[in-house]
Amino acid sequence: MATSTPLPSFTNTVVQAMRELFPEALADSAWDNTGLLLDQAQDARLTQKAEPTVLLTNDLSGPVVDEALQAQASIIVSYHPVIFRGLKSLTNRDPMQASLLRLIAAGVAVYCPHTAVDAAHGGLNDWLCDILVDGKVKTKSTVLQPITRTLPEAHQGTGYGRSVALETPMPLKDLLRNLSVGLGNQRYVSIATKSGLEQQISSVAVCAGSGSDILQDSDAQLLVTGEMSHHAALRQVHLGQTVVTVFHSNSERQYLTQRLKPMLEKKLEGALGGQGFSVLVSTKDRDPFETIDVTQL
């Protein structure tokens, strides 16, 4: 008598979908830590309580853990790795370790794709370019730091950072407005320039997160990133470029809603057929920094 093969768990299906969208081979393994960093406890008393729900977040903070547990999520996809360096212990004295202990106790897995999303076709940096030009025709789009190692055929030509040449120069102010809208109507950005705000921009380079190393050799007029060090910004301005920063995770977070959520939903629909599931984006995740007007205190 033929035996039926058990269906993979929802958590495993999510992990497989993420690996198909953003293979871990795309990540910068020289320093990054990506993949399934916290597996789901193989305890039916826990897993049977979990819903077929995945929660997307940029960072795995305490409030995000609360949110995941309240939603009875099976798995969290956290863009930034929850574990960067080796752990010698797991205690409640450290906030991140305490969060991991809570997730282990509840049987919730954590998958972290990070630089695999940065590098991928249709990934984070392509999205940043898209929101900046707002559909304007591009004459050329290039990868700033190509991946030279062997990759799956569909992912060849990927890498970190992007540069685009515009067919028609655009006013800097229009690009900044586009950026604001694309980042969820972010009101404030930081700018370093000696050319003023009335520039016409014909080339843009982007790097989500911390972009100093990736952007330093770009000759684009406008450099857009989450954060850049003081001395790196001075160098780029001295070279005649304009630098715009938006805070580290603000350059990444809206990608989850605008691109990753629909991409993952499509993958899961194909894999799960008619089985119900939910892909949620955290409402508690936010950058640790905010800009305040001290005169209004």
UniProtKB/TrEMBL annotation:
Keywords: Metal-binding
KW Metal-binding (keyword) present: yes
Record's keyword annotation contains Ubl conjugation: no
The protein's name: Uncharacterized protein
Organism the protein comes from: Neoarthrinium moseri
Record-linked InterPro entries: DUF34/NIF3, DUF34/NIF3_sf
Assigned protein family: Belongs to the GTP cyclohydrolase I type 2/NIF3 family.
Binding site for a divalent metal cation: H80, D118, H248, E252
Entries under NCBIfam families matching the protein: YbgI_SA1388
One GO cellular component term noted in the UniProt record for this chain: mitochondrion
